Amino acid sequence: MKPQSASPYARSACFRLAPVALALALAAALSPAYAQNHGHDHARPADASDDPFKPVYIVTSRQTFDAGVQSLAKNASGLSNAIGKPLVIAELKTHQLPDLIRHVHENEKRCGGYFAFDSRREAEDFVKADRSREAIETLFATYTVDNQATVNPWLSQVSEANIRGTINHLSTQYPNRYYASTHGRTSATWIKDTWLALANGRSDVSAELYTGCTNCSTQPSAILTIQGSELPNEVVVLGAHLDSISSSGSGDAMNAPGADDDASGIATLTEVLRVALASGYKPKRTIKFMGYAAEEVGLRGSKAIATDFKNRGVNVVGVLQLDMTNYRNGGANPVRLVTDYSNSALQQFLRDLHATYLGGTLGSYTCGYGCSDHASWTASGFPAAIYFESGTSGGGYSPYIHSPSDTLANMGNSAANSVPFAKLGLAFVGELGKTAGSGPGPGPGTQTYSNATAYAINDNATVDSPIPVSGRTGNGPANAQVYVSIVHTYRGDLKVDLVAPDGSLYNLHNRSGGSADNLEQTYTVDVSSEALNGQWKLRVNDNGPGDTGRIVKWSITF
Protein backbone atom coordinates (compact mmCIF):
# COMPACT_ATOMS: atom_id res chain seq x y z
CA MET A 1 0.00 0.00 0.00
CA LYS A 2 0.99 3.62 -0.45
CA PRO A 3 -0.53 5.35 2.59
CA GLN A 4 -0.93 9.10 2.72
CA SER A 5 1.32 9.86 5.64
CA ALA A 6 4.74 8.20 5.58
CA SER A 7 6.42 7.27 8.85
CA PRO A 8 9.91 8.58 9.60
CA TYR A 9 11.26 5.04 9.23
CA ALA A 10 9.58 4.49 5.88
CA ARG A 11 10.57 7.93 4.59
CA SER A 12 14.22 7.45 5.40
CA ALA A 13 14.21 3.91 4.07
CA CYS A 14 13.09 5.06 0.64
CA PHE A 15 16.35 6.86 -0.03
CA ARG A 16 19.11 4.46 0.86
CA LEU A 17 19.90 3.80 -2.78
CA ALA A 18 22.31 6.07 -4.59
CA PRO A 19 20.41 8.56 -6.80
CA VAL A 20 21.69 7.17 -10.12
CA ALA A 21 20.96 3.57 -9.11
CA LEU A 22 17.52 4.59 -7.92
CA ALA A 23 16.87 6.40 -11.19
CA LEU A 24 17.79 3.30 -13.16
CA ALA A 25 15.64 1.10 -10.96
CA LEU A 26 12.71 3.46 -11.34
CA ALA A 27 13.18 3.50 -15.08
CA ALA A 28 12.53 -0.23 -15.06
CA ALA A 29 9.71 0.02 -12.56
CA LEU A 30 7.79 2.83 -14.22
CA SER A 31 8.36 2.42 -17.94
CA PRO A 32 6.47 -0.23 -19.90
CA ALA A 33 9.37 -0.24 -22.38
CA TYR A 34 11.30 -2.32 -19.87
CA ALA A 35 8.44 -4.70 -19.13
CA GLN A 36 7.35 -7.96 -20.65
CA ASN A 37 5.03 -8.31 -23.61
CA HIS A 38 1.82 -10.24 -22.96
CA GLY A 39 2.46 -13.94 -23.22
CA HIS A 40 6.17 -13.83 -22.41
CA ASP A 41 7.77 -14.90 -19.17
CA HIS A 42 10.88 -12.74 -19.05
CA ALA A 43 11.65 -9.05 -18.77
CA ARG A 44 14.97 -7.26 -19.06
CA PRO A 45 15.96 -5.69 -15.73
CA ALA A 46 17.48 -2.24 -15.49
CA ASP A 47 21.23 -2.13 -15.95
CA ALA A 48 23.91 0.38 -16.82
CA SER A 49 22.80 0.55 -20.45
CA ASP A 50 19.39 1.99 -19.55
CA ASP A 51 19.11 5.67 -20.38
CA PRO A 52 18.71 7.88 -17.28
CA PHE A 53 17.83 10.77 -19.62
CA LYS A 54 14.86 9.05 -21.19
CA PRO A 55 11.73 11.28 -21.03
CA VAL A 56 9.01 10.26 -18.61
CA TYR A 57 5.55 11.83 -18.64
CA ILE A 58 3.83 12.12 -15.29
CA VAL A 59 0.27 12.82 -14.21
CA THR A 60 0.20 14.45 -10.80
CA SER A 61 -2.05 16.76 -8.84
CA ARG A 62 -1.86 20.50 -9.35
CA GLN A 63 -1.08 20.83 -5.64
CA THR A 64 1.92 18.51 -5.86
CA PHE A 65 3.13 20.19 -9.03
CA ASP A 66 2.92 23.71 -7.60
CA ALA A 67 4.55 22.65 -4.33
CA GLY A 68 7.83 21.77 -5.99
CA VAL A 69 7.57 19.45 -8.96
CA GLN A 70 7.41 22.42 -11.32
CA SER A 71 11.10 23.10 -10.61
CA LEU A 72 11.94 19.67 -12.04
CA ALA A 73 9.53 19.46 -14.97
CA LYS A 74 9.03 21.05 -18.36
CA ASN A 75 6.28 21.21 -20.98
CA ALA A 76 3.56 21.12 -18.33
CA SER A 77 -0.12 21.30 -19.18
CA GLY A 78 -3.09 21.46 -16.83
CA LEU A 79 -6.31 19.46 -16.96
CA SER A 80 -8.83 17.84 -14.61
CA ASN A 81 -10.03 14.28 -14.10
CA ALA A 82 -13.61 13.03 -13.93
CA ILE A 83 -14.18 14.27 -10.37
CA GLY A 84 -12.75 17.70 -11.13
CA LYS A 85 -9.41 17.22 -9.42
CA PRO A 86 -6.87 19.61 -10.99
CA LEU A 87 -4.05 17.58 -12.52
CA VAL A 88 -0.89 18.34 -14.44
CA ILE A 89 0.86 16.38 -17.18
CA ALA A 90 4.56 17.20 -17.28
CA GLU A 91 7.80 15.87 -18.72
CA LEU A 92 10.80 14.79 -16.67
CA LYS A 93 13.93 12.77 -17.30
CA THR A 94 14.18 9.35 -15.72
CA HIS A 95 17.05 10.42 -13.49
CA GLN A 96 14.80 13.13 -11.98
CA LEU A 97 12.29 10.65 -10.59
CA PRO A 98 14.20 10.27 -7.27
CA ASP A 99 13.83 14.04 -6.79
CA LEU A 100 10.10 13.78 -7.48
CA ILE A 101 9.72 10.94 -4.98
CA ARG A 102 11.80 12.81 -2.40
CA HIS A 103 9.55 15.85 -2.79
CA VAL A 104 6.35 13.82 -2.25
CA HIS A 105 7.78 12.01 0.77
CA GLU A 106 9.45 14.92 2.53
CA ASN A 107 7.04 17.74 1.74
CA GLU A 108 3.68 15.99 1.46
CA LYS A 109 4.37 13.15 3.92
CA ARG A 110 2.98 10.44 1.67
CA CYS A 111 3.91 7.88 -0.98
CA GLY A 112 2.72 7.72 -4.55
CA GLY A 113 1.14 10.89 -5.89
CA TYR A 114 1.63 10.40 -9.60
CA PHE A 115 1.36 8.03 -12.56
CA ALA A 116 4.19 7.69 -15.09
CA PHE A 117 3.95 7.01 -18.84
CA ASP A 118 6.20 6.57 -21.85
CA SER A 119 4.41 9.23 -23.89
CA ARG A 120 2.30 12.31 -23.40
CA ARG A 121 -0.49 10.69 -25.40
CA GLU A 122 -0.64 7.77 -22.95
CA ALA A 123 -0.83 10.20 -20.05
CA GLU A 124 -3.59 12.22 -21.73
CA ASP A 125 -5.57 9.11 -22.62
CA PHE A 126 -5.32 7.90 -19.02
CA VAL A 127 -6.92 11.08 -17.71
CA LYS A 128 -9.55 11.22 -20.46
CA ALA A 129 -10.63 7.63 -19.75
CA ASP A 130 -11.03 8.20 -16.01
CA ARG A 131 -14.46 7.11 -14.73
CA SER A 132 -14.01 7.95 -11.06
CA ARG A 133 -17.10 10.13 -10.81
CA GLU A 134 -19.51 7.39 -11.82
CA ALA A 135 -17.59 4.89 -9.67
CA ILE A 136 -17.95 7.10 -6.60
CA GLU A 137 -21.50 8.35 -7.11
CA THR A 138 -23.44 5.58 -8.90
CA LEU A 139 -25.59 3.03 -7.09
CA PHE A 140 -24.51 -0.23 -8.75
CA ALA A 141 -26.67 -2.61 -6.73
CA THR A 142 -29.05 -2.76 -3.81
CA TYR A 143 -26.80 -3.40 -0.81
CA THR A 144 -28.78 -5.22 1.87
CA VAL A 145 -27.84 -6.90 5.15
CA ASP A 146 -30.28 -9.80 5.46
CA ASN A 147 -28.23 -13.01 5.19
CA GLN A 148 -27.40 -13.57 8.84
CA ALA A 149 -28.37 -17.22 8.55
CA THR A 150 -25.30 -17.76 6.38
CA VAL A 151 -22.87 -15.25 7.87
CA ASN A 152 -23.32 -15.71 11.63
CA PRO A 153 -22.20 -19.36 11.77
CA TRP A 154 -19.05 -18.45 9.83
CA LEU A 155 -17.73 -15.89 12.29
CA SER A 156 -16.73 -18.25 15.09
CA GLN A 157 -14.80 -20.39 12.62
CA VAL A 158 -12.19 -17.73 11.84
CA SER A 159 -8.79 -18.97 13.01
CA GLU A 160 -6.04 -16.58 14.07
CA ALA A 161 -3.54 -19.44 13.76
CA ASN A 162 -4.45 -20.00 10.11
CA ILE A 163 -4.03 -16.33 9.25
CA ARG A 164 -0.75 -16.21 11.15
CA GLY A 165 0.49 -19.30 9.34
CA THR A 166 -0.14 -17.78 5.92
CA ILE A 167 1.53 -14.50 6.87
CA ASN A 168 4.50 -16.46 8.18
CA HIS A 169 4.82 -18.52 5.00
CA LEU A 170 4.64 -15.54 2.64
CA SER A 171 7.05 -13.42 4.69
CA THR A 172 9.68 -16.08 5.45
CA GLN A 173 9.68 -18.66 2.64
CA TYR A 174 10.61 -16.07 0.00
CA PRO A 175 13.23 -13.32 0.40
CA ASN A 176 10.68 -11.08 -1.31
CA ARG A 177 7.60 -11.15 -3.51
CA TYR A 178 8.90 -8.33 -5.72
CA TYR A 179 7.15 -8.24 -9.08
CA ALA A 180 10.35 -8.56 -11.14
CA SER A 181 12.01 -11.31 -9.07
CA THR A 182 11.64 -15.06 -9.49
CA HIS A 183 10.04 -15.11 -6.03
CA GLY A 184 7.29 -12.82 -7.29
CA ARG A 185 6.04 -15.50 -9.64
CA THR A 186 6.69 -18.44 -7.28
CA SER A 187 4.72 -16.84 -4.46
CA ALA A 188 1.83 -15.99 -6.80
CA THR A 189 1.70 -19.62 -7.93
CA TRP A 190 1.66 -20.79 -4.31
CA ILE A 191 -1.28 -18.50 -3.53
CA LYS A 192 -3.25 -19.75 -6.53
CA ASP A 193 -2.58 -23.39 -5.69
CA THR A 194 -3.39 -22.88 -2.00
CA TRP A 195 -6.70 -21.22 -2.82
CA LEU A 196 -7.71 -23.90 -5.32
CA ALA A 197 -6.89 -26.69 -2.87
CA LEU A 198 -9.45 -25.24 -0.45
CA ALA A 199 -12.17 -25.98 -3.02
CA ASN A 200 -11.49 -29.72 -2.72
CA GLY A 201 -12.31 -30.36 -6.37
CA ARG A 202 -15.62 -28.47 -6.58
CA SER A 203 -16.69 -28.09 -10.21
CA ASP A 204 -18.03 -24.56 -9.67
CA VAL A 205 -14.67 -23.28 -8.41
CA SER A 206 -11.70 -22.48 -10.65
CA ALA A 207 -8.38 -20.67 -10.32
CA GLU A 208 -5.95 -19.04 -12.71
CA LEU A 209 -2.77 -17.02 -12.98
CA TYR A 210 -3.75 -13.81 -14.78
CA THR A 211 -0.99 -12.83 -17.23
CA GLY A 212 -2.79 -10.04 -19.05
CA CYS A 213 -0.71 -7.31 -17.41
CA THR A 214 1.90 -6.22 -19.97
CA ASN A 215 4.11 -4.33 -17.51
CA CYS A 216 4.05 -6.66 -14.49
CA SER A 217 7.31 -8.41 -15.49
CA THR A 218 6.99 -12.15 -14.74
CA GLN A 219 4.54 -11.78 -11.85
CA PRO A 220 0.94 -12.85 -12.55
CA SER A 221 -2.09 -12.05 -10.45
CA ALA A 222 -3.88 -14.95 -8.77
CA ILE A 223 -7.65 -15.24 -9.26
CA LEU A 224 -10.08 -17.80 -7.80
CA THR A 225 -13.69 -17.81 -9.00
CA ILE A 226 -16.77 -19.28 -7.33
CA GLN A 227 -19.42 -19.36 -10.05
CA GLY A 228 -22.74 -17.82 -9.08
CA SER A 229 -25.74 -20.12 -9.39
CA GLU A 230 -28.56 -17.62 -9.93
CA LEU A 231 -26.92 -14.32 -10.92
CA PRO A 232 -23.67 -15.50 -12.51
CA ASN A 233 -23.20 -12.31 -14.53
CA GLU A 234 -23.11 -10.13 -11.41
CA VAL A 235 -19.60 -10.24 -9.96
CA VAL A 236 -18.33 -9.62 -6.43
CA VAL A 237 -14.56 -9.06 -5.98
CA LEU A 238 -12.37 -9.35 -2.88
CA GLY A 239 -8.71 -8.42 -3.36
CA ALA A 240 -5.32 -7.85 -1.80
CA HIS A 241 -1.91 -7.39 -3.38
CA LEU A 242 0.57 -10.24 -3.35
CA ASP A 243 3.82 -8.38 -4.10
CA SER A 244 6.27 -6.75 -1.68
CA ILE A 245 9.05 -4.18 -1.94
CA SER A 246 11.92 -2.87 0.16
CA SER A 247 14.79 -0.41 0.06
CA SER A 248 17.22 -3.19 1.04
CA GLY A 249 18.77 -5.08 -1.85
CA SER A 250 17.39 -5.58 -5.34
CA GLY A 251 15.97 -8.27 -7.60
CA ASP A 252 16.02 -11.78 -6.16
CA ALA A 253 18.21 -10.58 -3.28
CA MET A 254 15.81 -7.85 -2.14
CA ASN A 255 14.98 -8.20 1.56
CA ALA A 256 11.25 -7.51 1.51
CA PRO A 257 9.26 -9.80 3.84
CA GLY A 258 6.11 -7.66 3.50
CA ALA A 259 4.35 -9.35 6.41
CA ASP A 260 1.86 -6.54 6.94
CA ASP A 261 2.10 -5.04 3.45
CA ASP A 262 0.41 -7.12 2.21
CA ALA A 263 0.85 -10.73 3.30
CA SER A 264 -1.72 -9.86 5.95
CA GLY A 265 -4.31 -9.00 3.31
CA ILE A 266 -3.66 -12.20 1.33
CA ALA A 267 -3.77 -14.26 4.54
CA THR A 268 -7.07 -12.66 5.55
CA LEU A 269 -8.60 -13.44 2.15
CA THR A 270 -7.32 -17.00 2.39
CA GLU A 271 -9.11 -17.50 5.71
CA VAL A 272 -12.32 -15.97 4.32
CA LEU A 273 -12.17 -18.39 1.42
CA ARG A 274 -11.42 -21.37 3.69
CA VAL A 275 -14.38 -20.76 5.99
CA ALA A 276 -16.85 -20.11 3.17
CA LEU A 277 -15.84 -23.15 1.12
CA ALA A 278 -15.65 -25.45 4.16
CA SER A 279 -19.33 -24.69 4.82
CA GLY A 280 -20.30 -25.75 1.30
CA TYR A 281 -21.33 -22.18 0.48
CA LYS A 282 -22.80 -21.59 -2.98
CA PRO A 283 -23.44 -17.94 -3.87
CA LYS A 284 -26.12 -16.41 -6.04
CA ARG A 285 -23.60 -14.00 -7.55
CA THR A 286 -20.18 -14.94 -8.91
CA ILE A 287 -17.40 -14.23 -6.41
CA LYS A 288 -13.77 -13.64 -7.34
CA PHE A 289 -10.83 -13.62 -4.93
CA MET A 290 -7.86 -11.74 -6.36
CA GLY A 291 -4.20 -11.46 -5.38
CA TYR A 292 -2.88 -8.55 -7.42
CA ALA A 293 0.57 -8.38 -8.96
CA ALA A 294 2.83 -5.34 -8.93
CA GLU A 295 0.81 -3.04 -6.66
CA GLU A 296 3.93 -1.52 -5.14
CA VAL A 297 5.13 -0.19 -8.51
CA GLY A 298 1.98 1.61 -9.58
CA LEU A 299 -1.11 -0.59 -9.07
CA ARG A 300 -0.23 -2.40 -12.29
CA GLY A 301 -1.87 -5.78 -11.76
CA SER A 302 -5.19 -4.45 -10.52
CA LYS A 303 -5.24 -1.76 -13.20
CA ALA A 304 -4.79 -4.40 -15.91
CA ILE A 305 -7.63 -6.53 -14.53
CA ALA A 306 -10.00 -3.60 -13.94
CA THR A 307 -9.32 -2.26 -17.45
CA ASP A 308 -9.93 -5.71 -18.92
CA PHE A 309 -13.21 -6.02 -17.03
CA LYS A 310 -14.27 -2.57 -18.23
CA ASN A 311 -13.45 -3.40 -21.83
CA ARG A 312 -15.39 -6.69 -21.64
CA GLY A 313 -18.39 -5.11 -19.92
CA VAL A 314 -18.19 -7.29 -16.81
CA ASN A 315 -20.90 -6.28 -14.34
CA VAL A 316 -19.00 -5.82 -11.07
CA VAL A 317 -21.39 -4.93 -8.25
CA GLY A 318 -18.80 -4.45 -5.49
CA VAL A 319 -15.05 -4.63 -4.78
CA LEU A 320 -13.51 -4.97 -1.32
CA GLN A 321 -9.79 -4.27 -0.92
CA LEU A 322 -7.78 -5.54 2.07
CA ASP A 323 -4.35 -3.90 2.14
CA MET A 324 -2.59 -4.09 5.54
CA THR A 325 -4.81 -5.65 8.20
CA ASN A 326 -2.50 -6.72 11.02
CA TYR A 327 -0.67 -3.75 12.59
CA ARG A 328 -2.07 -2.10 15.69
CA ASN A 329 -0.03 -0.13 18.19
CA GLY A 330 -2.38 2.10 20.13
CA GLY A 331 -4.89 2.61 17.35
CA ALA A 332 -8.24 3.66 18.76
CA ASN A 333 -10.39 1.36 16.61
CA PRO A 334 -9.64 -2.18 15.41
CA VAL A 335 -10.77 -1.39 11.87
CA ARG A 336 -10.86 1.80 9.82
CA LEU A 337 -12.82 2.61 6.67
CA VAL A 338 -11.07 4.58 3.95
CA THR A 339 -13.39 7.41 2.95
CA ASP A 340 -11.83 8.80 -0.23
CA TYR A 341 -11.72 7.54 -3.82
CA SER A 342 -14.37 4.86 -3.20
CA ASN A 343 -18.05 4.31 -3.89
CA SER A 344 -20.28 6.12 -1.42
CA ALA A 345 -23.04 3.47 -1.31
CA LEU A 346 -20.49 0.68 -0.86
CA GLN A 347 -18.87 2.63 1.98
CA GLN A 348 -22.24 2.70 3.72
CA PHE A 349 -22.61 -1.02 3.09
CA LEU A 350 -19.25 -1.60 4.82
CA ARG A 351 -20.42 0.52 7.75
CA ASP A 352 -23.61 -1.56 7.95
CA LEU A 353 -21.63 -4.82 7.88
CA HIS A 354 -19.38 -3.59 10.69
CA ALA A 355 -22.34 -2.48 12.81
CA THR A 356 -24.22 -5.75 12.27
CA TYR A 357 -21.44 -8.29 12.63
CA LEU A 358 -18.74 -6.63 14.77
CA GLY A 359 -20.29 -3.69 16.59
CA GLY A 360 -18.29 -0.99 18.28
CA THR A 361 -16.78 2.01 16.55
CA LEU A 362 -15.54 1.88 12.98
CA GLY A 363 -12.67 4.32 12.49
CA SER A 364 -12.05 6.36 9.35
CA TYR A 365 -8.97 7.13 7.26
CA THR A 366 -8.12 9.05 4.11
CA CYS A 367 -5.27 7.52 2.17
CA GLY A 368 -4.97 9.87 -0.82
CA TYR A 369 -4.88 9.52 -4.58
CA GLY A 370 -4.00 6.02 -5.84
CA CYS A 371 -3.05 4.55 -2.46
CA SER A 372 -4.09 0.93 -3.13
CA ASP A 373 -5.72 -1.37 -5.66
CA HIS A 374 -9.28 -0.17 -5.04
CA ALA A 375 -8.19 2.98 -6.91
CA SER A 376 -7.74 0.94 -10.10
CA TRP A 377 -11.35 -0.21 -9.93
CA THR A 378 -12.54 3.32 -9.15
CA ALA A 379 -10.66 4.76 -12.14
CA SER A 380 -12.29 2.13 -14.38
CA GLY A 381 -15.78 3.02 -13.18
CA PHE A 382 -16.47 0.19 -10.73
CA PRO A 383 -17.73 0.41 -7.11
CA ALA A 384 -14.87 -0.25 -4.70
CA ALA A 385 -14.08 0.34 -1.03
CA ILE A 386 -11.39 -0.60 1.49
CA TYR A 387 -11.07 -1.48 5.16
CA PHE A 388 -7.70 -0.48 6.69
CA GLU A 389 -5.74 -1.51 9.77
CA SER A 390 -5.95 0.17 13.16
CA GLY A 391 -2.42 1.61 13.12
CA THR A 392 -0.99 3.88 15.78
CA SER A 393 -2.43 6.10 18.49
CA GLY A 394 -1.64 9.10 16.33
CA GLY A 395 -3.65 7.77 13.40
CA GLY A 396 -0.65 6.52 11.45
CA TYR A 397 0.10 3.13 9.99
CA SER A 398 2.86 0.55 10.40
CA PRO A 399 6.30 2.21 10.57
CA TYR A 400 7.93 -0.90 9.12
CA ILE A 401 6.39 -1.20 5.65
CA HIS A 402 8.69 -1.25 2.61
CA SER A 403 11.61 -2.33 4.79
CA PRO A 404 13.25 -5.55 6.05
CA SER A 405 11.49 -4.93 9.37
CA ASP A 406 7.98 -5.57 8.02
CA THR A 407 7.89 -8.93 9.84
CA LEU A 408 5.46 -10.95 11.89
CA ALA A 409 7.75 -10.43 14.90
CA ASN A 410 7.10 -6.69 14.69
CA MET A 411 3.40 -7.45 14.94
CA GLY A 412 3.75 -9.46 18.13
CA ASN A 413 3.99 -12.81 16.29
CA SER A 414 0.21 -12.75 16.17
CA ALA A 415 -2.53 -12.30 13.58
CA ALA A 416 -5.18 -11.34 16.11
CA ASN A 417 -5.54 -7.90 14.55
CA SER A 418 -6.53 -9.51 11.23
CA VAL A 419 -9.36 -11.59 12.71
CA PRO A 420 -11.95 -8.74 12.56
CA PHE A 421 -11.05 -8.19 8.90
CA ALA A 422 -11.64 -11.86 8.11
CA LYS A 423 -15.05 -11.65 9.77
CA LEU A 424 -15.89 -8.54 7.76
CA GLY A 425 -14.67 -10.26 4.60
CA LEU A 426 -17.01 -13.16 5.30
CA ALA A 427 -19.86 -10.71 5.89
CA PHE A 428 -19.07 -9.04 2.55
CA VAL A 429 -19.11 -12.41 0.76
CA GLY A 430 -22.35 -13.57 2.37
CA GLU A 431 -24.26 -10.30 2.14
CA LEU A 432 -23.22 -9.26 -1.38
CA GLY A 433 -22.84 -12.72 -2.89
CA LYS A 434 -25.99 -13.92 -1.06
CA THR A 435 -26.76 -17.64 -0.74
CA ALA A 436 -28.21 -19.76 -3.52
CA GLY A 437 -31.80 -20.80 -3.01
CA SER A 438 -32.44 -18.28 -0.23
CA GLY A 439 -34.19 -14.97 0.05
CA PRO A 440 -34.53 -12.07 0.27
CA GLY A 441 -31.79 -10.23 -1.56
CA PRO A 442 -31.30 -10.46 -5.32
CA GLY A 443 -33.52 -13.40 -6.14
CA PRO A 444 -36.82 -14.31 -7.76
CA GLY A 445 -38.63 -11.36 -6.16
CA THR A 446 -36.64 -8.35 -7.38
CA GLN A 447 -33.43 -8.26 -9.36
CA THR A 448 -31.25 -5.53 -10.83
CA TYR A 449 -29.77 -6.07 -14.30
CA SER A 450 -27.02 -3.73 -15.48
CA ASN A 451 -24.86 -2.93 -18.48
CA ALA A 452 -21.72 -0.92 -17.67
CA THR A 453 -20.19 -1.11 -21.14
CA ALA A 454 -19.58 2.33 -22.64
CA TYR A 455 -21.41 2.99 -25.90
CA ALA A 456 -20.44 6.04 -27.96
CA ILE A 457 -23.19 8.54 -28.82
CA ASN A 458 -22.26 10.16 -32.12
CA ASP A 459 -23.83 13.17 -33.80
CA ASN A 460 -27.24 12.50 -35.36
CA ALA A 461 -26.99 8.78 -34.62
CA THR A 462 -28.81 6.11 -32.60
CA VAL A 463 -27.16 3.61 -30.28
CA ASP A 464 -28.60 0.68 -28.27
CA SER A 465 -27.20 -0.78 -25.04
CA PRO A 466 -28.67 -4.26 -24.41
CA ILE A 467 -29.45 -6.18 -21.22
CA PRO A 468 -30.56 -9.82 -21.56
CA VAL A 469 -32.98 -11.15 -18.94
CA SER A 470 -33.65 -14.85 -18.48
CA GLY A 471 -34.89 -17.28 -15.87
CA ARG A 472 -37.87 -15.12 -14.90
CA THR A 473 -41.58 -15.80 -15.20
CA GLY A 474 -44.52 -13.56 -15.92
CA ASN A 475 -44.71 -9.88 -16.74
CA GLY A 476 -42.92 -6.88 -15.33
CA PRO A 477 -44.23 -4.58 -12.60
CA ALA A 478 -45.94 -1.22 -12.86
CA ASN A 479 -43.01 0.43 -11.12
CA ALA A 480 -39.81 -0.86 -12.74
CA GLN A 481 -36.82 1.34 -11.89
CA VAL A 482 -34.60 2.34 -14.82
CA TYR A 483 -31.33 4.05 -13.91
CA VAL A 484 -29.54 5.96 -16.68
CA SER A 485 -26.05 7.49 -16.66
CA ILE A 486 -25.07 9.32 -19.84
CA VAL A 487 -22.15 11.67 -20.41
CA HIS A 488 -22.98 14.22 -23.13
CA THR A 489 -22.11 17.86 -23.74
CA TYR A 490 -25.68 18.93 -24.71
CA ARG A 491 -28.44 16.78 -23.27
CA GLY A 492 -31.11 18.76 -25.10
CA ASP A 493 -30.02 16.83 -28.21
CA LEU A 494 -30.97 13.48 -26.69
CA LYS A 495 -34.03 11.28 -26.90
CA VAL A 496 -33.79 8.27 -24.58
CA ASP A 497 -36.14 5.25 -24.67
CA LEU A 498 -36.44 1.94 -22.87
CA VAL A 499 -37.02 -0.77 -25.49
CA ALA A 500 -38.92 -3.85 -24.31
CA PRO A 501 -38.14 -7.32 -25.70
CA ASP A 502 -41.13 -7.08 -28.09
CA GLY A 503 -39.89 -3.73 -29.43
CA SER A 504 -42.29 -1.49 -27.49
CA LEU A 505 -40.81 1.93 -26.63
CA TYR A 506 -41.07 3.68 -23.26
CA ASN A 507 -39.81 7.23 -23.45
CA LEU A 508 -37.58 8.36 -20.60
CA HIS A 509 -36.14 11.66 -21.85
CA ASN A 510 -37.15 13.73 -24.85
CA ARG A 511 -34.71 16.53 -25.72
CA SER A 512 -35.19 18.51 -22.53
CA GLY A 513 -32.50 20.20 -20.46
CA GLY A 514 -31.16 22.55 -23.12
CA SER A 515 -27.39 23.02 -23.11
CA ALA A 516 -26.81 21.32 -19.76
CA ASP A 517 -24.26 18.51 -19.65
CA ASN A 518 -24.94 14.85 -18.93
CA LEU A 519 -27.99 12.88 -17.87
CA GLU A 520 -28.09 10.83 -14.68
CA GLN A 521 -31.53 9.90 -13.40
CA THR A 522 -33.75 7.04 -12.24
CA TYR A 523 -37.12 6.67 -13.96
CA THR A 524 -40.19 4.71 -12.84
CA VAL A 525 -41.73 2.83 -15.78
CA ASP A 526 -44.91 0.75 -16.04
CA VAL A 527 -43.90 -2.44 -17.88
CA SER A 528 -46.73 -4.60 -16.57
CA SER A 529 -47.74 -5.49 -20.13
CA GLU A 530 -44.26 -6.80 -20.98
CA ALA A 531 -42.79 -10.24 -20.41
CA LEU A 532 -39.73 -10.07 -18.15
CA ASN A 533 -37.61 -12.47 -20.20
CA GLY A 534 -35.88 -11.27 -23.34
CA GLN A 535 -33.51 -8.55 -24.42
CA TRP A 536 -34.18 -5.10 -23.00
CA LYS A 537 -32.39 -2.10 -24.48
CA LEU A 538 -31.64 1.49 -23.68
CA ARG A 539 -31.90 3.43 -26.94
CA VAL A 540 -30.29 6.86 -27.22
CA ASN A 541 -30.85 9.08 -30.25
CA ASP A 542 -28.70 12.19 -30.81
CA ASN A 543 -30.61 14.84 -32.77
CA GLY A 544 -28.09 17.63 -33.25
CA PRO A 545 -24.59 18.44 -34.51
CA GLY A 546 -21.49 19.41 -32.58
CA ASP A 547 -21.99 17.50 -29.31
CA THR A 548 -21.26 13.86 -28.57
CA GLY A 549 -21.01 11.58 -25.56
CA ARG A 550 -21.49 8.02 -24.34
CA ILE A 551 -23.81 5.77 -22.42
CA VAL A 552 -21.85 5.13 -19.22
CA LYS A 553 -24.18 2.63 -17.57
CA TRP A 554 -27.81 1.78 -17.21
CA SER A 555 -29.78 -0.71 -15.16
CA ILE A 556 -33.32 -1.97 -14.80
CA THR A 557 -34.76 -3.28 -11.55
CA PHE A 558 -37.89 -5.43 -11.49
UniProtKB/TrEMBL annotation:
Residues 438-558 form the P/Homo B domain. SUPFAM superfamilies: Galactose-binding domain-like, Zn-dependent exopeptidases. GO terms for molecular function: aminopeptidase activity; metal ion binding; metalloexopeptidase activity; serine-type endopeptidase activity. Keywords: Aminopeptidase, Hydrolase, Metal-binding, Protease, Signal, Zinc. Residues 1-35 form the signal peptide. GO terms for biological process: proteolysis. InterPro entries: Galactose-bd-like_sf, M28_fam, P_dom, Peptidase_M28. It holds the Pfam family Peptidase_M28. PANTHER family: AMINOPEPTIDASE YDR415C-RELATED (PTHR12147:SF56), METALLOPEPTIDASE M28 FAMILY MEMBER (PTHR12147). This is Peptidase, M28 family/proprotein convertase P-domain protein.
